[in-house]
Write a structure and sequence with these properties.
This protein has 13 helices and 8 strands. It is of the alpha+beta class. A hairpin with a 5-residue loop joins strand 1 and strand 2 (about 65-70). The structure holds zinc ion. The site of zinc ion has 4 residues, from strand 6.
């Protein structure tokens, strides 16, 4: 899906840059001139990742950019407010949510040792995900499909290609599992997917509430409970690279790359993966 989305996005950017054949103009959303480059990129990856949900960016009466959803709902893109790390987690605008670029690819020295507060994807505007996936547990459940993952059928949202993406992750891994018995310590027991709950120690909904996150073995290191955080860099490096690559290829980010580490946790965030690819100059 991401390869297709990238092609779409590239065409959209070409459309923004100059004349385009009539066919493109019929298929692609109109480019929005006059935006700062960061806002233009953020808008492009949101539109490509959540088709049909995003209308555009508009200035409000105070001169601040807001994201306008096709439902008419308006969300702060850049409210101009200063935020420390805690405030960013609690009350982000969308620009802050997308500001840290997720480090795609195998764990290297930098991603094994993230800087304090480097948690790309952990800052989330809850109202944005409520609008995309459902405002209540019953709404979210109504959008979920059952996906085969290892020996389980798990509930995952079918909105915006998420369930299909998780199914493809397992399709990538399943044929290789017999050759990789070392994966089992990561895969089993499976922690689970859909759960309407708050993040531990916060009032914020977990992304599991929206059916777009999966926990592998819950005994993997988690920053709030890990008794030996000094071992986490080596545990990041020991995580099976094939499993990480399969998830990232399908639009998931890994909590193992966060300073506030959560090595069991993968989350469907195609906009962050696409933005990282764009900034890395990758075409797929
Ligand atoms: Zn999780």
């Amino acid at each position: 899906m991401l390869r297709r989305v990238f092609g779409f996005l590239l065409l959209a950017l070409l459309l923004a840059a100059g004349p385009c054949p009539a066919l493109c103009a019929e298929v692609l959303p109109p480019a929005q001139p006059g935006l700062p480059p960061e806002a233009a990129l953020d808008l492009a990856v949101l539109r490509a990742s959540y088709p049909g949900a995003v209308q555009g960016l508009e200035q409000n009466a105070a001169g601040c950019l807001e994201l306008v959803l096709t439902s008419g709902q308006r969300l702060a893109y850049d409210d101009g407010l200063p935020r420390d790390a805690r405030q960013a987690l609690d009350t982000p605008d969308l620009r802050t949510m997308l500001a840290q670029v997720y480090p795609l690819g195998p764990v290297d020295e930098a991603s094994a040792h993230p800087q304090p507060s480097f948690d790309p994807g952990r800052v989330r505007m809850q109202s944005f995900f409520e609008a995309l996936y459902g405002h209540t547990e019953s709404q979210v459940r109504g959008n979920c499909a059952t996906v085969r993952f290892d020996n389980h059928g798990v509930a995952f949202t079918s909105r915006f290609g998420a369930a299909q993406a998780l199914a493809r992750v397992w399709q990538r891994l399943a044929p290789l599992l017999p050759e990789h018995p070392e994966w089992l310590r990561v895969l089993r027991p499976l922690g689970g997917t859909l759960a309407w709950r708050r993040i531990a120690g916060t009032k914020r909904l977990s992304m599991h509430s929206f059916g777009l996150a999966i926990d592998l073995n819950p005994h993997l290191p988690y920053w709030r409970s890990e008794p030996h955080p000094e071992t986490v860099a080596s545990q990041r490096q020991a995580f099976p690279p094939e499993i990480l690559a399969a998830f990232e290829a399908e639009g998931f980010i890994w909590g193992g790359k966060w300073a506030s580490f959560d090595l069991m946790h993968f989350e469907y965030r195609p906009e962050l993966v696409l933005k990282a690819r764009m900034l890395n100059g990758q075409s797929q």
